[in-house]
Amino acid sequence: MGFEAPLWRALAVFRIAALLYAGSLILRNVDEYRSQAGGWTVLAVMVAWTAYTVYGYADPARRRWPLLAADLAVAAGCLLATAWVERPERIAAGVPTLTMAWVAAPVLAWAVSGGKRRGSAAAAAIGAASIAVHGIAGRGFMPTQATFNGVVLVFLAGFVVGHVAELGIEAEARLARAIELEAATRERERLARRIHDSVLQVLALVQRRGGELGGEAAELGRLAGEQEAALRTLIGSRPRPGERERPGADADADLGALLNAHAGAAVTVSAPAGAVPVPARAAWEIDAAVAAALDNVRRHCPPGTRAWVLLEDDPQAVTVSVRDDGPGMPAGRVAEAEAAGRLGISQSIKGRIRDLGGTVAIVSAPGEGTEIEMTVPRARLTAA
């Protein structure tokens, strides 16, 4: 149902109640008006518009600018009509406007739909119309104390209701994310139990028997041990932050938690103890670049090659280094690969980081391994 639905229903009740009160005052004072026909006309417009808005706002698809703007315009028009319907001396004496509290309904609608800023803007428009009534009636722009009090109350209503609506919508979104995370965690735990009872036990057995047999079986046992360690790390980690918002999410993700998922028997990940918040889209791109670098290590380096991932976070930039103890690369190897159409480093690593506004430095020499350092300025991460 959502948090907003009860607010819109309460607003519909407010409109009807405010209409009944304003209508009773018009019926009681119509004989005192300068234009009785004008009073009846304003009342008819208020009744018709109340019926239409109660119907219109009931559908979320119609709660958009056309209806919101028309709502505010009709309320302001009925309010301004007081200057022609009422007698100037009665306005000067501080009699209520024709609309009374009914005029606050569009302010509350704007507040519920867009928060305290939009509610305050609508309240400012209604306040200006209230003050203009006195100018049109011939008293200049000097409102009475009652008019001033009404303007302040409408402004406070728009601000407070808008603030409450913002808090409620944010709380609802957090609750939805918490429910999704709980469901994902339960599913992960269920899969972890099944994997532990089957796959992990088989891998552990292969590792132990391979070591006992020696030769090629020992190599198979070593690979099984690495996969067992990697699988244990995977099923033991929490769901990736921002995973359900990908792509283009506005929320932050913990880059350290993403990179920790790559840890295994041959990969060591070092990250700050605390969270490293990065916009989710940028975090996924950096994580994908690291995954591409580790994939290069697995494909192009001998078995047993180790890799180290280091995440550094400071106020100016986020830096991720991927280093291995493999055979290294001769000078110009990356350029040759790009010229030959092999774009793994060029696109999967450099391209991703370049799109984020960062830089990539590659240091390698035969027999000395390879280090890829990816740096993205914090200012560019925020823009991403």
Automatic annotation (TrEMBL):
GO-annotated molecular function: kinase activity
Leader sequence segment: none
Superkingdom, natural source: Bacteria
Membrane-spanning intervals of the chain: 7-27, 39-58, 65-85, 91-112, 119-142, 148-169
Organism encoding this protein: Thermomonospora cellulosilytica
Every Histidine kinase/HSP90-like ATPase domain range: 289-379
Residues covered by the DUF5931 domain: 1-176
Keywords in alphabetical order: Kinase, Membrane, Transferase, Transmembrane, Transmembrane helix, Two-component regulatory system
SUPFAM superfamilies listed in its UniProt record: ATPase domain of HSP90 chaperone/DNA topoisomerase II/histidine kinase
Name the UniProt record assigns to this protein: Signal transduction histidine kinase
PANTHER family to which the protein is assigned, alphabetical: NITRATE/NITRITE SENSOR PROTEIN NARX-RELATED, OXYGEN SENSOR HISTIDINE KINASE NREB
Cited InterPro entries: DUF5931, HATPase_C_sf, HATPase_dom, Sensor_HK_TwoCompSys
Keyword Cell membrane attributed: no
Alphabetized CDD domains for the sequence: HATPase_UhpB-NarQ-NarX-like (cd16917)
One Pfam family this sequence matches: DUF5931
